[in-house]
Amino acid sequence: MIGQLKGRLDSTHDGGCIFDVNGVGYLLSCSRKTLDALAGRDGAQRLLVETRVSQDAITLYGFADASEREAFRALIEVKTVGPQKALIVLSSLTPDGLARAIAGKERKRLSEVKGLGAATANRIVDEPAMQKWAVGRATPDADGEGALSIAPLEQGAEADAVSALVNLGWKQPQAAAAISRVAKRLGDGATLDALIRDGLKEMAR
């Protein structure tokens, strides 16, 4: 399974892009916000990837950061919300904006997302798992309409360490906070192994 890709944007199309990794072009489905973030930065970039395998296809979904991928994973667990509808939501709302809308039960705001509809918006708001996810993320000072950013390669070790902790079962916000503290303590020369090792110690406290 592919968890992330490091490369360059080759081209974009409606609903996705081709991401060039050492001459191999990966076809990725992405939100509009991730595509805008990719197009706004030159050079090598990192994309987190969710691989979904169905009976007749293997589809790769690309994300600007771990919070968007986490929101995607939460959304597709809601009945009738598949990957494409999840990307429609994330094209209109950032993860923080979505969390605030769900936590505040702003049904109208979600129903106004083009292509979603009132019935699906209600399911998202009423889903207990989504409420639990949203309450953990919703913050009063978060900019729900802000743009996503793509992490440059020089920040890859810290981002990869966060991804490793998330893959081990920790929540992304807690993992990110722990790795941030560790990175400050270890300094600029910290290796990925050191970040993960000390990050695990930090999480165990």
Automatic annotation (TrEMBL):
Keywords: ATP-binding, Cytoplasm, DNA damage, DNA recombination, DNA repair, DNA-binding, Helicase, Hydrolase, Nucleotide-binding. InterPro entries: DNA_helicase_Holl-junc_RuvA_I, NA-bd_OB-fold, RuvA, RuvA_2-like, RuvA_C, RuvA_C_sf. This is Holliday junction branch migration complex subunit RuvA. Has three domains with a flexible linker between the domains II and III and assumes an 'L' shape. Domain III is highly mobile and contacts RuvB. One of its GO terms (molecular function) is four-way junction helicase activity. The RuvA-RuvB-RuvC complex processes Holliday junction (HJ) DNA during genetic recombination and DNA repair, while the RuvA-RuvB complex plays an important role in the rescue of blocked DNA replication forks via replication fork reversal (RFR). RuvA specifically binds to HJ cruciform DNA, conferring on it an open structure. The RuvB hexamer acts as an ATP-dependent pump, pulling dsDNA into and through the RuvAB complex. HJ branch migration allows RuvC to scan DNA until it finds its consensus sequence, where it cleaves and resolves the cruciform DNA. Residues 155-205 are annotated as: Domain III. The keyword ATP-binding applies. Residues 1-62 form the DNA helicase Holliday junction RuvA type domain. The lineage of its organism: Bacteria, Pseudomonadati, Pseudomonadota, Alphaproteobacteria, Acetobacterales. Residues 1-64 are annotated as: Domain I. Residues 157-203 form the Holliday junction DNA helicase RuvA C-terminal domain. GO terms for biological process: DNA recombination; DNA repair. Its main location: cytoplasm.
